[in-house]
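Task card 7
Instruction: Convert sequence to structure tokens.
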Amino acid sequence: MKKSSSKVLMAMIATTAMTGGMLSHALPTHALETTSVYETTITQKKGSLTLHKYDLDKKPIAGATYSIYKVMSLDPSGTPDNFFGYSIEADFKDVLKNVTPDALGNYSTSQLEALNKELAEKAAGLQAIQKGTSDADGMIKFPDLELGYYLVVETQAPNGYVAGKPFLVAVPSTNNYQNGEQQGTEWVYDVEANPKNEKVSIDKDLANSSDGSVKVNDYVKYQVKTKMPSYDDSYFGNKEHPATFDIVDIMDDGLAIQKDAAHPIVVMLNDQVIAEGESTYTVMAENKSGEEADMIISFKEAFIKEHGGKDITVTYYAQVTEKAVQGQEGNENAVNLRYENKPGEITNSEKDTEKVYSFGIKVEKFTKEENTKALSGAEFTLLAENGKDVLGEATTDENGILNFPKIDAGTYYLKETKSPVGYTLLANPIKVEIIADVNAEGKATGSFTLKVDGNDITAEDGVFTTQLDKENGTAIIAVENQKGFTLPSTGGMGITIFLTIGGLGILGISVVMMKKSKKQA
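Output:
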């Protein structure tokens, strides 16, 4: 039995979808074997194409937009030597003018991909036969299609993905189009395909096992991981729109990007450190305000082309500044990717963020003698956990308040070094333990628990009350002072001690004084 050259063409065109990585199984590269013309008779005049979009975990992807273009029409009438014929659509004659079924049957994978690229470039200026966008189930259906060969182009990739390669599909196709290991025995009019996308995502984390609680002047080390997109050739060679892949980092004003010998920006391809250069990437690192990028790593087109699909890891540092905020708001560092989701069209990936949190200690100095009132002029020193290293000094204001702001979680001691006039010093330092709450990953959440002198503090309101201000990340320590004894000096001949004691005490002192007088006489 003589093989149909048109069937070879149909099988091979369908195969381009496979070799481009667009479908889940390989299509056959052989023609449909038959024993008679009647076993392969095409009985329908129309068919359909259904696309199923899934990620690598088989979860449906919504928001992928596809356009289809008819490049060849199929005429099912024919003779035993030529089962059916085809005709090239007028809009694609210049691209397919030298393509014959027998020649196409010998095309290599790279030749088929090149042909698809040419067809897609031609289709860019044409009106699509149908358009569709994947729904919540990841499905797009193109119904009521005339028989022929269709170019399928992803015209808008979902956020976080690079558009898949264009591919050709035949309607109808033989029933082995998704399994090249079986023979084709009949026609499938409702064709289904599972086009794949290159996912573009970035993951940001705190390095060095940091829990994310920080103080001013701390250095925070970050690590981001991503993968170089596997752009096809259609993304390269355009001087006006060179292939783009940038890592963009935006920091809150309380964080300052670093780029020095002690705190370098390190870029790794797989496990190899890659130096900045004209053939690799460039780095912009400058502290900006608001939503302006503080760091941009821009990879060169040739580097992107050479290393598609490889892992990229970047480590870098930020320093906590006086502009940092304390409390549950946190200090955010956000990173995203700027890339092409289709040739010449740049988009941004979703951001991945990390926050670091600072806490504070607020002292409220007061007395309850006479009327409860605030005490100004009390001086305190904040000591580290070892009870020796001085971390700060402050004096209470007219409201009895002083602050040690933007410190990290940990154990501290408050030591009163000067008491207000007329009041005694605290006998012992106050032990303050700020314990950062962490999530399942061991990262600070901005909330905290508090212990003072070993006692759990749960109060969250009150006047002159030791408590937690969770929203602002502040441990409020209420410190009461007591008035002391007054020991006045008379000067000159000595010191007279005035003590208020009971009558028996006065008598005792009188007896002692009388005995001394007699002895001296």
